[in-house]
Amino acid sequence: MHGLKDKRVLITGGAGGIGLETARRFLAEGARVALLDLDPAACQRAREILPSLSGILLADVSDAKQVARAFGELDALFGGLDVLINNAGISIRHAFLDITPEEWRKVIEVNLNGVFYVAQQAARRMWAGAGGVILNMGSTNGLTGYHYYADYNASKAGVIELTRSMALELGPKVRVNAVCPGFIMTPMQEAEYTPEMRRSFEVKVPLQRLGKPEDVAALFAFLASDEAAFITGQTFVIDGGEIAGGLASQA
């Protein structure tokens, strides 16, 4: 991709799954990459897997003070920021009637509040500098209803609208888009779906497979690059055709 070499990139939730694969892709593009994650053991593994990382920041994105502290460390590391991949998120598979107030708050605090805290810190630096790109992690769950994920669905719908609002206010210096994956085979998905559940879903997807983290990483790389210089305020679905015919409404 044009324009990614030497760019300063921060990836939240970067120590595993889509985040780690995205770090691998941006490093291959010649970018300087730092990760932000709350799991020290996973961060150590990430450092071993990708030794060319510029740095790793430990923080919980749902805590505004921890996020501010981490960005202070990022300032010392990079002296600014060009690209934010706002990827950190959690999900809990449970029926709507069973969601506790504590579970609801936890999901919203990480998936929506966390995206806001990180994006605001990044945008302040980009606005004060030469500009940049913010890519927020949405989901097809934020575009259509899904069983058993009411809190997650609501958080991702919020991320999509936050993205549009940010794009309006931060242009022309900062481009902001949302990436909305469908079923991507990550450790989080492996923990929530049995092999039988995954196979039954896979056969319904038009492309006849589940997504891979590197599929999403490639989209992030494109949207962060100069090739996407006229794209902002948009939502990009990457789902193998999953929701094209209303598949998501099927139990």
Describe it for me?
The chain has helices spanning 17-28, 40-49, 64-78, 101-128, 150-170, 187-192, 195-202, 213-224; strands spanning 8-12, 32-37, 55-58, 83-86, 132-137, 174-181, 235-238. The protein is an alpha/beta fold and 251 residues long. It has one domain (8-238): Rossmann fold. A 7-stranded parallel beta sheet has the order 3-2-1-4-5-6-7, with helices on both faces. Strand 4 (83-86), helix 4 (101-128) and strand 5 (132-137) form a beta-alpha-beta unit. Helix 1 packs across helix 8, helix 3 (64-78) packs parallel to helix 4 (101-128) and helix 4 (101-128) runs parallel beside helix 5. The protein is globular and about 45 Å long. The model has no long low-confidence stretch (mean pLDDT 95).
SSE map:
Layout: E1 8-12, H1 17-28, E2 32-37, H2 40-49, E3 55-58, H3 64-78, E4 83-86, H4 101-128, E5 132-137, H5 150-170, E6 174-181, H6 187-192, H7 195-202, H8 213-224, E7 235-238
Parallel strand pairs: 1-2, 1-4, 2-3, 4-5, 5-6, 6-7
Helix pairs in contact: 1-8, 3-4, 4-5
